[in-house]
Structure formats: C-alpha cells, structure tokens
Amino acid sequence: MNRTSAATGLSHGHRAEPQHATRAVRQAMQRAGVSRASAVVLFLTPEYAANPEPALRAAVRESHCLQVIGATGAGILTEQEWVLDSPGAAAMIFTEPLQLRPPTGGDLADNVTVLSFSTPSGLRADWLDVAACRLGGISGDVQGQGPFQVWSAGRVSEDGRAEAVLDGARAAIHVSQGVRALTSPIEVAEVHDAEVRSLGGYPALSVLVRSLPASVRAMERIPLHLILGGVTFGDPLTAIRDGRYRINPIVAANPRDQSIILAQPLARGERLFWAMRDTLAAERDMRATLIRAHEELDAEPEFALLFPCLGRGPSFYGNRDRDLDLVTSRFPGLPVIGIYGNGELGPLDGVNHLYQYSTVLGLFKAEGP
Length: 369
Fold this sequence. Notes:
By secondary structure, this protein is α+β, with helices and mostly antiparallel strands. 23% of the residues lie in helices and 38% in strands. The protein has ten helices and 26 strands. It has helices at residues 19-32, 53-63, 105-108, 125-128, 204-211, 214-217, 236-242, 279-297, 314-317, 322-330; strands at residues 6-12, 39-44, 68-72, 75-78, 82-83, 88-94, 99-101, 113-118, 133-138, 150-152, 155-156, 161-167, 169-176, 179-181, 186-192, 195-199, 202-203, 227-232, 245-254, 259-262, 271-277, 303-308, 336-340, 344-348, 351-355, 359-366. The strands form four sheets. It has a six-stranded mixed β-sheet. The protein has a six-stranded mixed β-sheet with strand order 5-4-23-22-26-13, covered by helices on one side. Strand 15 and strand 16 form a beta hairpin. Helix 1 packs parallel to helix 2 (53-63) and helix 8 (279-297) runs parallel beside helix 10. The longest helix has 19 residues, at 279-297. The chain is elongated, with a radius of gyration of 21 Å. The chain starts with 5 loop residues before the first strand and ends with a strand. The model has no long low-confidence stretch (mean pLDDT 94).
C-alpha cells in the first residue's frame, strides 16, 4: 500500500466507548499504510466530555504516538461522513516528516500555523492575539452547557487551551462567513456600547426593516436569529466581496426607540451592514473560499481541516453538510477532519478571530525533508 502524509478514520455507535477511538485510529493507519503515526488529531463527540481520558489512552496505544491533539465537539466529521446524533470518534493520523509539537515563543511571534482548541471558559484575548495564525475551534455541544474538553500531547488540558505547531506542511487558511448582504456598509452615527441607535442618520431598526425582503417583512415576528450585523474592515466598497468583515449577531431590537442591541460593542464611525443567514449565499461563498484557498496553496492539497459552526452544519443545510460536500467533490479522496464547534478560529484582516456561524478551512501540502 502507498504511504500517504495523512489519513482519517471514524467510528461511532450507541455508547461512548474508548474502542471508537481505537477503531478510528486503526482505520486511519490502515489507509495510510503505516504501523506507527507521527501525530494524531482526535475529535470526540460530547458524550466523552465527562471523561475523555480512556479514549485518549486508546488513541495513544493504537497510534504508538503521544502527540495527540483535539477536542470534544457537538459533532465530528471526516471526508467519509459526519456524526451529530451518536457517540463516536474521528481521527486523522500523520506520517513522517509531519510532526506536532508545542509552540515556542518564537513560533507565536512568527507567521506559522498553530492548531488551536479551547473551551469557552478557556478562551482568552491574549492567547488569541499572537502573530501566529491559529486554526481550530471552540469545544461545544448542542445545548451549550458542557462539560467541554480539549487536549494536547495526549493529555486533557487543565487550563482549557490546547495548541500545537504542525511541522512539515504549509497551509492555506480561508473562511466562509457566507451571509447574504441586505445593505451596503453604513456608517454608525450613534451608538452606546453594543446598542446601535442610528445608521447614516436614520434609526437603526428602521434601516434594518426597510432592507428586509418583502416575505420577511410580512411575517408577524422578524426572525432575528437569521439576521446579523456585519462590521467591515478596510475599503467598505469591496469589504463584503472580499470577506473583510466580522459577524456581530443581533441580541434584541427595541421598537420604541428604534435601536438594535448587538452581541459585541461598536464604535461611532465604524461601518455596519445588515445581512441574513442564507443557504444559497453560504454555499456560493464556500465555493469561492475553496477556490481562494486552492490558489493560495498553489498545489494539490494532501489533507484538510474543516471547522464549521454547529449553526452552519447539516441542520442549516437541510440535513446535509454542503460545506463538506463541496470540499470532497472538489478534492475527491482528500483526507478531511473536523468538528462542529461553539466558535471557529481563523485569520481575519491579518489577526486571529473568533468566528460565529462560519466555516474555517485549512488546506495543507506536505513539504519534503
């Protein structure tokens, strides 16, 4: 069997047993044609979060490797399938010369890719704010109540953060936020913390309502869970097209004073546009994201890591993961692994960013010794 740089395996069933980790790693090693892995990415479903150690030990034993990194997520995926409704494990094994190692201070000050996972409580701004490019996700479950777990070097992280540099491969990391813009970016004229009162001189809620499609305006109640704000960076004329924006979800609307409260504070003078979560727009944007990542890598990828938000997964697309489908159809046979998390980590305008309702894609090409 030909040896490859990476391969995946997945196992699931009725119970959260460590054997799923064993089988997932074994499948991956058989596909790679090796008897020992140089590193392992292991993702587990939420049923393992209370006690992931037996599954971690099983993965270490089967792979003959201590360099195991990963997290529990609301669901798991590989290029073969996705799992959201049963306990299971997904594994990607790497072979020499690929290696996982703890980052040094020099790594974090350099432009390297660091696989990064965090629990919601473990996420810190100073951890995110480094020169290195973080790629990964936030541990999550369907209810968002926990417990949540992340691990590196085969051990559960006590501080809720796990990170490792993947040596021997170069990466192209791109993000699909995939929203349907309802307005162009408008200057925030009046704001108090996260309460937007005026956009371009008009009441914020009035601007939003006028921008909604007629079918949505006719509803008895506006579906605020599908409507988002987008805060742009750089040239506002091209920011939406180029993906230079961060999503800022709506928390509440106040019909009395026509204000809108967002999840994150804004500053006067920033540019905000209203948008909707839309499956067609998301699929179109994911296609463009794949093209951009492939062009940046400038080679055929040998493996991929994919981090979709739980809110961007199969439930969003009608019980299909169109993001995963697009990756596997563009790159048939490409090993892919990921989790559905509580947030996604990736680059935005030159810095690391915590995304929501998005999909972060990393394409990798192994480099020769």
